[in-house]
Amino acid sequence: MNRIFGSSASKKPKPSLQDAINSTDTRVASIEVKIKKLDGELGRYKDQMSKLRNGPGKDAIQQRALRTLKQKRMYEGQLAQLQQQTFNMESAALATENLRNTMATVEAMKVANKEIKKQYGKIDIDKIENMHYDMEDLLEQANEIQETLGRSYAVPDEIDEADLEAGTLPSLEEDEESTSYLADLNKAPDFVDEPPVELSEVGASSSSNAAES
C-alpha cells in the first residue's frame, strides 16, 4: 500500500524562506522581460501614429496601443507586488539569521559560563593566601641568606673598649712617638743657653775680624 499511495515520510519537505525568495525572483525576472517587450510595441505604435493622418487606420493603431499600455500597467502592478514580497521575505530571512546568530552566541556564553564556574570551583582562596604567605617567608629567608653571605670575615662586627685599648690605642701612640722626633730635631740642645746664631750674623762677624787684622 505504501508503494502505491506513498507514505507520509515520502512527502516533499516544505519550501524554505530562501526557496520562496528564489521563486519570486524568477517571476520578477519573467515579468520584467514582458514589460520590456510591451515597451517595444508601444514605441512602434507611437511611430506609426506619428506618420498617419487622423482616420480609421490611426484610430485602430491607437486602440492597440491602449490595450498594450493597459497590459503593461497590469504587469507593472504585479512586478511591484512581487518586489515588495521579495523585500519582506528578505527582511524576514535577515531577522531569522540574526536570531539564529544570537541564539548561537547565547549558547556559547552558557557553555563558557559553566566552564568558568567549573574552573573557579577548583580554586581554593585559602590555599592561595597560604601560598602567598609562604612566598613572603621564602623571600625573607632569601634576604637573610644574602645578608649572611655578604658579611666580612676579616673585621669583627663589634669592638669593645678593651679591644680598642689593646689594639688601636698602642698603635696610635706608636705613630705619635714616631712622628714626634721630627719636632725634636728643630729644638736646640739642652747645653746651649743662647739662641742659635743666624748665618748672616756669622758672615758679618768674620768680615769685621778680617778688617781689624
Automatic annotation (TrEMBL):
GO terms for cellular component: multivesicular body. InterPro entries: Snf7_fam. Keywords: Coiled coil. The keyword Signal does not apply. One of its GO terms (biological process) is late endosome to vacuole transport via multivesicular body sorting pathway. Residues 28-85 form a coiled coil. Gene3D superfamilies: 6.10.250.1710, ESAT-6-like. Residues 1-23, 167-213 are annotated as: Disordered. This is Vacuolar protein sorting-associated protein 60.
